[in-house]
Inverse folding.
């Protein structure tokens, strides 16, 4: 089999960062975690990382084991007194770590915002009316965690369509890149979910996402979002990057591992 493609896992700084992302996505309180839901989604991410051929650090797997243990406790009868007396309860420890990490992230983001504000001292603050208009119309750059969450949702929908897939059929990143570039040259921009037509096989979704990450990295396309939680759009920003795209297709065309349908 041809050598596998590899995507660096830079979306999350570690398992706590991924957990905090899931907490924010589900809009839940850290101190009242829905363990079953968070565990299932965390494992979905690990499955997704494996399909993307990501080099996942062992600490992600340790966290997965902890979450699965906590979920299992919800399904098994326990001695309440014994559980309350446990000084090393992993659930309590997990919440403590997550709360500390959240404080660290918030402090880091506040410091970053202050540094940015210091550089932009001559910037005029928008009026409330302008701010409201920007919130509705402004397209913001999408970060990697947001893209991964969008992919997880697409893959979750694909699972429901699994019986319609053809086992063993192969999908290549090079083909996905060609299709993506052709669509964006024709339409200018597209919604993220439009990359995957109704009934798109899981293998094609994975190949397309890898191609998307590569094209964003090369600066050929931009991933943007309406407001803070709106529709994600893909926009062609360098229509003359034919050589870079050709090199990318060449590198994957001769070496990428087919994204097999499970």
């Amino acid at each position: 089999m041809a050598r596998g493609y590899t995507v660096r896992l830079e979306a999350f700084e570690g398992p706590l960062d991924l957990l905090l992302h899931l907490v924010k996505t589900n809009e839940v309180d850290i101190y009242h975690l829905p363990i079953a839901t968070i565990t299932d989604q965390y494992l979905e991410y690990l499955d997704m990382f494996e399909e993307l051929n990501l080099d996942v650090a062992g600490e992600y797997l340790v966290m997965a084991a902890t979450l699965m243990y906590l979920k299992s406790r919800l399904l098994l009868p326990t001695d309440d007194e014994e559980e309350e007396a446990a000084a090393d309860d992993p659930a309590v420890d997990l919440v403590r770590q997550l709360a500390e990490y959240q404080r660290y992230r918030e402090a880091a983001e506040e410091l970053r915002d202050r540094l940015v504000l210091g550089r932009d001292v001559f910037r005029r603050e928008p009026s409330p009316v302008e701010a409201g208009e920007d919130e509705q119309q402004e397209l913001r750059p999408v970060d990697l965690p947001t893209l991964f969450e969008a992919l997880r949702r697409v893959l979750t929908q694909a699972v429901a369509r699994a019986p319609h897939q053809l086992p063993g059929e192969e999908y290549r990143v090079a083909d996905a890149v060609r299709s993506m570039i052709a669509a964006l040259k024709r339409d200018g921009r597209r919604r993220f979910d439009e990359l995957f037509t109704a009934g798109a096989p899981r293998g094609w979704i994975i190949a397309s996402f890898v191609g998307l990450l590569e094209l964003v990295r090369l600066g050929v396309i931009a991933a943007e979002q309406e407001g803070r939680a709106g529709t994600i759009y893909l926009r062609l920003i360098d229509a003359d990057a034919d050589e870079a795209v050709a090199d990318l297709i060449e590198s994957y065309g001769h070496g990428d591992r087919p994204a097999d349908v499970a």
